[in-house]
Amino acid sequence: MSDNAQPIGGSFRDPAGRVFFREGAILRAVYPSGAADYEFVRDAGLHQRLAATGRLLPATEVDRTRLALAAPEACYVLQHPRLPFISHPYEWSFGALRSAALLQLEIHLEGLDCGVTLSDASAYNCQFRSAEPVFIDHLSFRRYRPGEYWNGYRQFCEQFLNPLLLQALLGLPFQPWYRGSLEGITAGQLAKLLRLRHKLNWRVFLHVVLQARAQVAAEIKRMPPRVTGRSLHPEAFRGLIRQLRSWVLHLHPLQPPRSVWGHYSQEHTYSDAEAGAKASFVRTAVGAASPAMLWDLGCNTGAYSQLALGSGAQLVIGFESDPLALETAFDLAKQKGLAFVPLYADLANPSPNQGWAQGERAGLVERAPADFILALAFVHHLAIARNIPLPDLIPWLVRLAPRGVVEFVDKSDPTVQKMLALREDIFRDYTIDHFEAQLGRHARITRTTRVSDSGRTLYAYER
User: Fold this and answer.
1) How far is it, in rounded angstroms, from Cα 282 to Cα 307?
2) In this structure, are residues 380 and 393 in contact, taking their beta carbons and an 8 Å threshold?
């Protein structure tokens, strides 16, 4: 008898259970150590209420034989709907991380009202369906013991609060740091960056400065700071969570007044006729493919992502490295209820496989292929700004999706001229003929049109 169930990512960290992928289904094994708490929370009706309002991923108890070999000790097996795309906190916008933080705090408060607490506060327990966060870990819920301390407090600060404060107080994007430190940003690290005026804020002093001092004191004594045995009155517990919720709700990214790409949609070099021709080409190509999932590479503020959704795409995952443009895109998705998830990404250095044995957090390429890509005003940023040769760039693009639209921006274009103004033009092979030859080598060019006097040209391809 064989079992093709495959364990998923970082779920091995939870002693209460583990998540598996089998025959297209997402299955969660509930081990004996987590069974009593699972039963208590299920019977309290919390799982069902949270799932009914879209805040918790639904779960259905199924026959334990589904994981008979992979998890023979399982007391229960839960089946979850499969999410179309998994993202990581270090790829989220400021607004997305704040939304996920608020979700954690709000469901924790609701849980306390029926005698349930959260055993941890991992940001990886949240995912996004469109621009709305959803909690995915049923086994993080357990029975609350009156008087107990919040065991997840430090984790909440490191994985939610401190990254948000880094950008809200100092204007520094949290994503590169977070990606390099998967457990988040410690209080000690953040405290070293803050100015005196920041530390004089009572909330910063309480949740960052004092916590950093406590951690240093524990290190001096060569003992980890422990919360086991500490007591916190139930109302004080609720008060702490409410206080953090109020603070997080009113945090906003400290953005520069301008950014390179945050205002591009208002200041690009297209005429109205040229912009219309580009939009028409994209609309036709996307409409013909009707992709279930489209990746918009360099999505900027989300204008073409929105156009793709209106042309037949069911879900758009956008990638953008400019913080202001990314935040604008997330606001657009949230305000209009779009099936659009804008994520932070430097696509010259995309997210790799990370974590234990490089298998906890899947890299970007491992989450491909999409059904369709848009690479509009994108290729020159990698080919010229990042010195990536077209023979390396084009096959990488084509591997991401079997169909797509790619834009070539000629050296005569004002945008490329600005990029070359302060450096030597070493890009002899960056020509439209060489681009077409490379694209034609790896895919079939199905349609093309020139959309600007400066030579911007769009190509639809199929593998």
Assistant:
1) 8
2) no
Here the tokens at position 345 are 């990404």
CATH number of 264-462: 3.40.50.150
Q: What is the pLDDT of residues 117-172, one digit of tens each?
A: 999 999 999 999 999 999 999 999 999 999 999 999 999 999 999 999 999 999 99
Nearest-angstrom CA–CA distance, 407 and 122: 39
Q: Tokens in use for 82?
A: 């499969």
Instruction: Output the CA–CA distances (angstroms, integers) from residue 104 to 141, 182, 269, 408, in the order listed.
Output: 11, 18, 43, 43
pTM for this predicted structure: 0.94
Could you tell me which of 80, 143, 162, 150 has the C-alpha nearest to residue 121?
A: 150
Point out which residues pair with 447 in neighbouring strands: 460
Which two three-digit tokens encode residue 340?
């659009």
Mind listing the pLDDT tens digit for each residue in 63-109?
A: 999 999 999 999 999 999 999 999 999 999 999 999 999 999 999 99
